[in-house]
Amino acid sequence: MPDGSESAMNAGYKDYYRVLGVERGATEDEIRSAFRKLAREYHPDVARNKAVAEEKFKEINEAYEVLGDADKRRKYDALGADGGNAQNFTPPPGWNQRGANGDSMHEFRFGGTGYSDFFEQFFGGQRAGFTRRGRDPFDFETDTEQEQPQRGGDVEGALMVTLDEALHGSVRSISLERVNPQSGTTETHTFRVRIPAGVCEGQLIRVAGKGDPGWNGAEAGDLLLRVRLARHPDFTVHGADLYHELELQPWQAVLGATVEVLTLEGRVSVRVPPGTEQGGKLRVRGRGLPEANGKRGDLLVTISILIPKQVSREEKALWEQLARLAK
């Protein structure tokens, strides 16, 4: 089995700071702002070249999933301040995730999941390339054990799912490359995976028979794809509900207004009641993600009141007049 430094090189180091165009010492707000800007630019819904934009959007999402999470960012920064000298990297304990028995018959590499091999190696949770639930066929203890059929181990990997896929469902082409570290042989399988509408963060999609081969005639294990919802520049997800921030001018909040609000299916008109406060929430029913009962969650619009940083002489006079009237 390759050691930590070889694994890092094989995985192909990803400079996530460069992907987002920020310095290594960037603040959380700077990283979030850079992600939102790039994600809006390369979102497949708005880009002209959808194929190129889709790959770029996945790369941006992967970078933000690591740098936007304090724990993942700390682990990533442990690779070194030079930003990519993976040859000299020695992983901390627990980075090479293994199965329950600490062994593996094969190493696995994925295609079509939305994540790079580098991410799978270091941030994929239970690393698919080292995850198995079953007996290692290279472990020979007794003739009796060798004769006993053993089901192949399950393999787990991460699957990036966009909010549009979570809303409508999709079919994804996934490739799985199985490498035998003992013989060096490689075999690749490509298959289509159905992503059902309503999938949620952490849900497992099971693909039967695509894990480790069985031993002595037993059935193969399964491939378990753990869903990770792609970050969106305009929405955050809480269960089946979506949250969106809406910026209002001060007079809109005071007087009330009818404004357009972004949803996953286009814009809708929403009435803002007079006297709306900073941080207030407006509920747009049925514009969230599907729930298990067939219904849909809601869109919660959080109000952010814009305060002008600069005003003209005329505007200042009007604000002063308003201040005098309000006394």
Q: Helical proportion?
A: 25-40%
- The secondary-structure element order is HHHHHEHHEHEEEEEEHEEEEH
Largest sheet: 4 strands, mixed
The separation of the N and C termini measures 76 Å
**Strand-residue proportion:** 15-25%
Mean pLDDT level: 81
Main-sheet strand order equals: 7-8-12-11
> Radius of gyration over alpha carbons?
25 Å
Q: From the helix content, strand content and strand pairing, which structural class follows?
A: alpha+beta
Query: How many beta-strand elements?
Result: 12
Number of helices, where a helix is a run of at least 4 consecutive DSSP H or I residues: 10
Query: Uncertain regions: pLDDT < 50 for 5+ in a row?
Result: 1-10, 83-87, 89-104, 125-143
State the shape.
elongated
Name the descriptors.
327 residues, alpha+beta, disordered N terminus, three-stranded antiparallel β-sheet, four-stranded mixed β-sheet, 10 helices, 28% helix, single chain, elongated
